[in-house]
Amino acid sequence: MQNVRKYSHFRVGVSLLLLITGLVADCIIGMALLAHPDRNVLIWHIPAAIVWALGVNCLSLRNMQSEAAATKKHARQRWMPYISWSGLVALFLGLGAFPGFGPFAYSMALIIGNFLRHPSAIETQEEVVLRAEVSPIPVEISPSLDWTVQPLVDHLQASDIETRRIAVAVLGCYGNPQTTQQLRQLLADPQGEIRADASIALSRLEDEFSRSLNLALEQWRANPTDNALALTLAEECYCYACSNVLDQGSQYFYLEHARDLLLQVVAHNSSNANLWLTLARVRARLNEPHQALQDAQVSLRLNPGSAEAALLAMELAFRLHAWDLLIALANRQTTALPDEAASLLWWGELKPEVQKEVAHG
């Protein structure tokens, strides 16, 4: 902000210097012509009038930029016109009027109109210009956001544009659903540079996901019976759908394709707990909670020590209001998952209240 103030004062000083120099020179030329009419002296009237008009133009541009900054708060102009109507009027008046007369009258009107105002009004206008920098919109922070990404989200709230742009660039390097969601929120940011950077980062991430998916698709099409290639393609479809770079319709399409591929793989390898768990996740996102719960239970039977399968099954049971199953899963996993024992016991203790709530319902 101090740099902005210094630059603004420097521009005003240069503008006043040009205005005063041209005005004094033109007045001297006018008095010289009145005393001794000479065409050679009249020639110097042209550069003097141009210098004076240039000073008027610079001051007028400063006022125009101040008004633009006050009225267009969330727009950062990349270029501005270098000629104002006041500057053009001053140029024609200075060249067309008798040397010194026109510029002197116009300068007096300009000084009275712009510089003999109340000091508080001038300070208020400067403050509006200096505070015209766009305030960043609040970014919604996910509770489960990785702690390594959290400082970057904090930097997005900074007032310095370069700090925010660096944070956007680093967020674009992660490519996980949480950071991608942050980038999508920044598409509505009031600062144009932030919107552009977020859009570029999302486009680059989408290209990366698309390339990986197309490569897996080509390999699978070359040998559709290969379960390993089908599983790879299913995982790519699932990652692409969960990346938050697609619209809802496209997400649903890729999730359906992942589900069909996983069913094909599971039919040939039904003893793999991870396959059933992945299938349960896909079906849960497809809003197929009953089938997803069954798949999670199969995965849990094949691998009783899987915390992910147990928590997913409990989450699905909670969504379906299957209280008995939820409590049974909690009690069953208390010994198998000692790290989650406290939360699982809490569910078990809710059994009387849950039964009472179901009975009244």
Could you characterize the architecture of this molecule?
The protein has helices at 2-35, 39-43, 45-71, 85-96, 101-114, 119-130, 150-155, 161-174, 177-185, 192-222, 227-241, 248-268, 273-285, 289-302, 307-319, 323-336, 341-349, 351-360. The model is unreliable at 1-5, 64-80 and 117-145 (pLDDT under 50). The protein is built from 18 helices and no strands. It has 361 residues and is mainly α. Helix content is 76%, strand content 0%.
Structural class: mainly alpha
Number of helical runs? 18
- Number-wise, the strands total 0
Helical percentage = over 70%
Task: State the shape.
Answer: rod-shaped
N- and C-termini, Cα separation = 62 Å
β-strand amount: under 5%
Which H/E pattern describes the elements?
Answer: HHHHHHHHHHHHHHHHHH
Integer-rounded radius of gyration = 36 Å
Mean pLDDT: 75
- How would a textbook summarize the main sheet? none
Low-confidence stretches are: 1-5, 64-80, 117-145
List keywords for this structure.
361 residues; mainly alpha; 18 helices; 0% strand
